[in-house]
Amino acid sequence: MTTTIFTDGSSRGNPGPGGWGSVLIEENGSNKNDFKVLELGGGVKMTTNNKMELKAAIEGLKKASKESEIKIYSDSSYVINGITKWVFGWKRNDWKTKTKDDVLNKDLWLELIEATKDKKVKWQYVGGHVGILGNERCDHIATAFADGMDIKLFNGLLANYDLPNILDISHNESLATSKKSSSSHSKAKAYSYVSSIGGVVEVHHSWAECEKRVKGAKGARYKKALNKGDEERIRSEFV
């Protein structure tokens, strides 16, 4: 049996509201449609990106069977270097760094060590926002929880999953370009926020106002506008 795990973490502000996401694909047998997919995710009101990256790996590994050969894909060099290299020195030095400072996130590192105990785990770095389906999905889950939005997590057969090619770790350039643009857009100062529920479009002058309307609303859509023209373009898309 082989289990593939994709993980990602997010923090708005670092520190700030954060979220984590993991997707497990359990390959048991030769029929790909019978592979099992499990999505996991959660949010924290005040945290850091590194904490959420660790949490995503911990929770994913907790769900993986000890009888399985585990491949885990992460875009966090911090997590991968930490668990494969740094923890050994930290343990020898009573959880002190080379500069004699306390190791940050010791509690989560201990959880991660426990989650890997008696398991065959192969760690693999993947670039973030380069179009790898599993990483993109985990990023979507993590950011949704960081933003306090409702998101439906999948638990079922790969045959019924919206991303049937999730095990393909090749880069998707069109998705990568879109993601980079989205990342740049997310850092820009907002002119307004536009929301749509049931075809009714409203413009908001703050994220708090927009969030109050869309949070928990079925089928809600929302976008940040950077200027008046951007606002009108989004309004036309939502009509």
Structural features, described:
This protein has 239 residues and is of the alpha+beta class. The chain is 38% helix and 27% strand. The chain has a six-stranded mixed β-sheet with strand order 5-4-1-2-3-6. A hairpin with an 8-residue loop joins strand 2 (16-27) and strand 3 (36-47). Helix 1 (49-63) packs parallel to helix 3 (106-116). The chain is globular, with a radius of gyration of 20 Å. The model is unreliable at 177-184 (pLDDT under 50).
Which features does this protein show?
239 residues; alpha+beta; six-stranded mixed β-sheet; 7 helices; 38% helix; globular
Please render the helix and strand layout as text.
Blueprint (H helix, E strand, L loop, with lengths): L1 E10 L4 E12 L8 E12 L1 H15 L5 E6 L2 H16 L13 H11 L3 E6 L7 H14 L8 E3 L15 H15 L4 E6 L2 E5 L2 H8 L6 E5 L2 H11 L1
Helix pairs in contact: 1-3
- Write down how many β-strands occur, each being a DSSP E stretch of 2 or more residues: 9
Query: Biggest sheet: strands, sense, closure?
Result: 6 strands, mixed
Mean pLDDT across all amino acids: 88
* Ends distance: 48 Å
The oligomerization state is single chain
Strands of the largest sheet, in order across it?
5-4-1-2-3-6
- Strand residue content: 25-35%
Number of helices: 7
